[in-house]
């Protein structure tokens, strides 16, 4: 029922979003303040920090900290929004699109929301731990102890992001700015997820951040889609709502639903999902989770864009050519449902 009501409430938005809504020049961006800081972290003592003669092998480093950049607009403020990127990427996901259009972080600020952009632990500006690599390199550990680090190649990422079923073919009506793909590939970085525990250290860091800023919507994407739910399971403090965009996983419908009772949740998917074996089961699992959460007193909603007439969106819909129209849908939902002071 919640899905039906959500679709009905967005009909007027969906009609205009069939094509990118024309937008005037927004003018200068005025903010009250901006900055950055780190959340979390722990010290590690090691004798394999380096294999270079000019740098000591022994010492103490800090790891598992999460980098956070923020901007706070002037005037009356909406609920803060925290943007959490997915696999093989960094907070750049939410910034200027590959073809030079405004990203969601700026757009949300322009609409009155303090916006926090993170780099997942061990990614981007959030430092990793090189000691295990150097332990193998120096012969102190066997080769099979090397950490697993992976990168998504252009060809495999093509299907993962649903640009097309095979590189370089594209899906009919696909909205991604494929002419700027070279700029997208530059955004991708090595991913160390396989070396980290579950939940990822990013999760307790998100909980600490939510409490530090006294209330935020956790907006996640793909690999990080599960993180806001795991954060809520740790503590509901500071979580004003959850927007999970094309999550790699929703909580299993058989799990304890108590952490989500009364919590505003929106799970969003783009187009072509049922045509990709990687994504169809994930959508099915999220449908089952939404039903289970609501049966337990939840406020969870599922929005699949083609079901309200918006077609052509890829997995990277925050960069698609109608990205700001999608952002408008999310802002409308946040304005109606997010808890101002959880």
UniProtKB/TrEMBL annotation:
Annotated transmembrane regions: none
Gene3D superfamilies: alpha/beta hydrolase
Source species, domain of life: Bacteria
Region forming the signal peptide: 1-19
Keyword line: Signal
Full protein name: Esterase
């Amino acid at each position: 029922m919640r899905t039906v009501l959500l679709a009905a409430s967005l009909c007027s938005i969906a009609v205009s979003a069939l094509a990118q809504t024309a937008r005037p020049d927004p003018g200068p961006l005025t903010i009250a303040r901006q900055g950055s800081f780190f959340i979390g972290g722990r010290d590690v003592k090691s004798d394999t920090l380096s294999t270079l003669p000019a740098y000591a092998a022994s010492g103490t480093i800090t790891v598992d900290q999460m980098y956070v950049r923020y901007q706070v607009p002037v005037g009356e403020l909406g609920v803060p929004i925290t943007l959490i990127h997915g696999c093989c990427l960094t907070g750049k996901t939410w910034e200027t699109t590959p073809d030079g259009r405004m990203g969601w972080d700026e757009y949300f600020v322009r609409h009155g929301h303090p916006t926090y952009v993170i780099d997942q632990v061990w990614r981007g500006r959030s430092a990793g731990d090189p000691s295990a690599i150097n332990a193998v390199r120096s012969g102190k550990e066997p080769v099979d102890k090397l950490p697993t680090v992976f990168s998504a190649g252009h060809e495999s990422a093509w299907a993962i992001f649903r640009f097309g079923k095979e590189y370089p073919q594209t899906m009919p009506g696909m909205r991604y700015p494929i002419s700027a793909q070279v700029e997208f590939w530059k955004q991708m970085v090595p991913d160390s997820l396989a070396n980290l525990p579950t939940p990822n250290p990013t999760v307790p860091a998100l909980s600490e951040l939510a409490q530090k800023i006294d209330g935020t919507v956790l907006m996640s994407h793909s690999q990080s889609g599960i993180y806001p739910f795991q954060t809520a399971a740790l503590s509901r403090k500071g979580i004003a709502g959850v927007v999970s965009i094309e999550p790699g996983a929703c909580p299993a419908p058989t799990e304890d639903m108590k952490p989500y009772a009364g919590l505003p949740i929106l799970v969003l998917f783009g187009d072509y999902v049922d045509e990709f074996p990687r994504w169809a089961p994930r959508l099915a699992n999220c449908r089952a989770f939404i039903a289970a959460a609501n049966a337990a007193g939840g406020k969870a909603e599922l929005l699949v864009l083609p079901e309200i007439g918006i077609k052509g969106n890829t997995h990277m819909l925050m960069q698609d050519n109608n990205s700001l129209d999608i952002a408008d849908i999310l802002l409308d939902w946040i304005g109606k449902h997010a808890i101002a002071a959880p």
